[in-house]
Write a structure and sequence with these properties.
This protein is an alpha/beta fold. The protein has two domains: about 130 residues, Aspartate Aminotransferase, domain 1 (Alpha-Beta Complex), CATH 3.90.1150; about 230 residues, Aspartate Aminotransferase, domain 2 (3-Layer(aba) Sandwich). About 45% of the residues lie in helices and about 15% in strands. About 50% of the residues are buried.
């Protein structure tokens, strides 16, 4: 029997990725997440993590998880609708609803699973989903999984979205958007999107993975804009500013009940470990009690933006995500390597994560960085770009 052609084809495709500077490799850390991490024997200032408030290694979050391990063990053992829903999960759902000011919340195993579940449960073949061109992949995949008509509008172009909605004859319409776009750090115009949703009788699905803990004094993008509506379905992850793993969906009680009954990633997946739910509850309490964490983070954002502007470097955002567009994928990789030599961990982001020709360095700031770390990165970034 000859060689398997499928393996040969994959090998050629991998070689092609390598030639184009698009082959990725994992880093192996030997430390917890934090403002500095240990990788391959080197201590590096960590500007790669989404741990925006430094909660991933907070002793109180760890203690909450440890206590839940003692009470419930590690694995949930089953789907939440069988016997996988513990008191720890229930407490986390109540805490998240209270934290966001929404009526009810539901805990999912991940943000990706949550968005797949939302869109496939609310839309069908007689529906239409309208999504920003730069939405996260999970919103795109959720729209495709729903089998609805799928319409994408240019990033932030509300005029095109309005025309698409006006032309739609779908029975059910859904507007799906990131609140903070994960590779650019810019903020979606949620009030205007809500106005369009109200005008055209549509749902507004908001993915606040990178807004929770950062905007709205930490309470997220809805609080930032001061908006509320029963047509908003709100998703936020636990794995970024809240320092853990998993996701919540919050909204009108009827919506959450429907998702509990019909969102396939919820119904047919083992529940999140109870310890992860307990860690989320602890993290929410810390964010509520310590607004200075968010204030420190936003102070670092302002310092970094001012430093870029003084250095003549384009591309900053009002959030913890600070992109520096360089265009070519191989150059982005080389710049990332150069910054590592100077003691900074800054990832190169390349297609397909971002559009072709927009490869970049993606700087993630944390409340736990020191002012000196931020200033040093700005200086070394300017020098590396100029070299």
């Amino acid at each position: 029997m000859g060689a398997f052609a499928g393996i040969a084809r994959i090998r050629r495709d991998l070689d092609g990725l390598a030639r184009e500077g698009l082959l990725r490799a994992r880093r192996t850390l030997d430390s917890p997440q934090g403002p500095s991490v240990l990788e391959s024997g080197a201590t590096l200032a960590n500007f790669a993590s989404n741990d925006y408030l430094g909660l991933a290694n907070d002793p109180r979050v760890i203690e909450a998880a440890r206590d839940a391990l003692g009470r419930y063990g590690f694995g949930a053992g089953a789907s939440p609708l069988v016997v996988g829903h513990t008191r720890s999960h229930a407490e986390a759902e109540r805490a998240f609803a209270a934290f966001t000011g929404l009526p009810r919340a539901l805990l999912f195993a991940s943000g990706y699973a949550a968005n797949l579940g939302i869109l496939a449960a609310l839309a069908d073949r007689e529906s239409a989903v309208f999504a920003d061109r730069l939405d996260h992949a999970c919103l795109v995949d959720g729209a495709l999984l729903s089998r609805a008509g799928f319409h994408r509008y240019p990033h932030g172009d509300l005029a095109v979205l309005e025309r698409q909605l006006a032309a739609s004859t779908a029975r059910t319409r859904l507007i799906a958007t990131d609140a903070v776009f994960s590779m650019d750090g810019d903020v979606a115009p949620l009030p205007e999107l809500l106005a369009l949703a109200e005008r055209f009788d549509a749902w507004l699905v908001v993915d606040d993975a990178h807004g929770i803990g950062v905007l709205g004094r930490g309470r997220g993008s809805l609080a930032h804009f001061g908006i509320a509506s029963e047509r908003i379905v709100y998703m936020a992850t636990l794995g970024k500013a809240l320092g853990g793993y998993g996701a919540f969906v919050a909204g009108a009680p009827e919506v959450i009940e429907w998702l509990m009954q019909r969102a396939r990633p919820y119904v047919f997946s083992t529940a999140l470990p109870p310890a992860a739910a307990a860690a989320a509850t602890a993290a929410l309490a810390i964010v509520a009690a310590e607004p200075e964490r968010v204030e420190r983070l936003l102070g670092h954002v302002a310092t970094f933006r001012e430093g870029l502007a003084k250095a003549g470097i384009a591309g900053s955002s009002p959030t913890a995500i600070q992109p520096v567009i360089v265009g070519d994928a191989s150059r982005a990789v080389a710049l990332s390597a150069g910054l590592r030599e100077r003691g900074h961990l800054v990832p190169a982001i390349r297609p397909p994560t971002v559009p072709a020709g927009t490869s970049r360095l993606r700087v993630s700031l944390s409340s736990e960085h020191s002012p000196a770390q931020v200033a040093c990165l700005v200086r070394d970034l300017a020098e590396t770009l100029a070299a």
